């Protein structure tokens, strides 16, 4: 396609999607799989718009097209719904409810409004309630003609095997340094060159992490995370410094960005680590993943959260003995 897309990278995934749309028998359900921050959200919406595009017309706006239905967690309460309507940061419910899925299924009883195709985006499918997954499974088993599902997933293993088996997987890969630089320059054009370089190094190919790094000024936090991982923190001095760097009352976005940065930093240490340390890193990474899954819907105490992050980093320190009391 010649037009500029709102995401950088993922060319192979986009070309695979275009080839599928142009084929005679396109699969009806897709898993958009990859770690957080790779651009799956933007990709899913543009992929849905491309799917319903009418011949000879530009790609429509996914937010207003009647044949694109996006299921995501609703605002936690009326106050959060007001924040969302005003374009402010808002807190979502813990999951996508069965009622949302059932409402979507009721809409499938009618034909698409403007063409022959309709797109259902579930973002992320990891957050579906158990009963919502069961309701979705019925739709995946007997999809109406012209209906296609795009399930965004950060952890495909959390989905039922029966759901995964009915989907074709579209995998998302890490971006190159040049692509990350392009993302930062486009989204944050006034960013400092040295900060961009550090963000790119820390992001491990994730544009989401790179942007958060620059936006929330995480260079100091990143430096301390690496020190804890490499030196340990027997006297809690570095963890105290990490808490100071985070701030007494950091914005929620800064907390979430710090948590995701910690997960990325730990993952980046794995390749060069010895076997015993790899096990410690994997354990710390798994715990960070669990916290990350809860973070968007729970109100964590900022001080306790940063100390938990510091403790997990210290538990995987190099050498391992450095983290022991």
TrEMBL record:
UniProt lineage: Bacteria, Pseudomonadati, Pseudomonadota, Alphaproteobacteria, Sphingomonadales
Name recorded for this polypeptide: AAA family ATPase
UniProt-listed InterPro entries: DNA_Rep/Repair_Clamp_Loader (IPR050238), P-loop_NTPase (IPR027417)
């Amino acid at each position: 396609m010649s037009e500029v897309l709102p995401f950088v990278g993922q060319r192979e995934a986009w070309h695979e999607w275009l080839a599928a749309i142009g084929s005679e028998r396109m699969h009806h359900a897709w898993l958009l799989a990859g770690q957080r921050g790779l651009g799956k959200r933007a990709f899913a919406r543009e992929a849905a718009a491309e799917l319903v595009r009418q011949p000879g017309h530009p790609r429509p706006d996914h937010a207003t097209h009647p044949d694109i239905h996006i299921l995501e967690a609703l605002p936690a309460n009326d106050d959060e719904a007001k924040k969302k309507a005003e374009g402010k940061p808002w807190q979502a419910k813990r999951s996508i409810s069965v009622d949302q899925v059932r409402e979507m299924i009721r809409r499938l009883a009618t034909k698409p409004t403007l063409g022959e195709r309709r797109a259902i985006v579930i973002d992320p499918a990891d957050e579906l309630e158990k009963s919502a997954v069961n309701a979705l499974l019925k739709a995946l088993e007997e999809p109406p003609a012209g209906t296609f599902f795009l399930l965004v997933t950060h952890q495909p293993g959390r989905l039922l095997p029966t759901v995964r088996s009915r989907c074709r997987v579209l995998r998302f890969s890490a971006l190159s340094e040049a692509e990350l630089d392009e993302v930062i320059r486009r989204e944050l054009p006034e960013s400092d060159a040295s900060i961009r370089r550090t963000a790119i190094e820390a992001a491990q190919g994730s544009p989401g992490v790179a942007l958060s790094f620059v936006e929330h000024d995480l260079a100091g936090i990143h430096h301390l995370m690496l020190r804890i991982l490499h030196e340990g923190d027997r006297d809690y001095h570095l963890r105290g410094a990490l808490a100071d760097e985070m701030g007494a009352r950091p914005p929620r976005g800064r907390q979430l960005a710090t948590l995701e940065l910690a997960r990325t930093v730990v993952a980046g240490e794995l390749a060069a680590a010895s076997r015993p340390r790899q096990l410690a890193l994997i354990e710390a990474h798994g715990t960070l993943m669990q916290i990350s899954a809860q973070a968007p819907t729970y109100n964590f105490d900022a001080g306790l959260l940063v100390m938990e992050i510091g403790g997990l980093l210290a538990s995987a320190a190099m050498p391992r003995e450095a983290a022991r009391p």
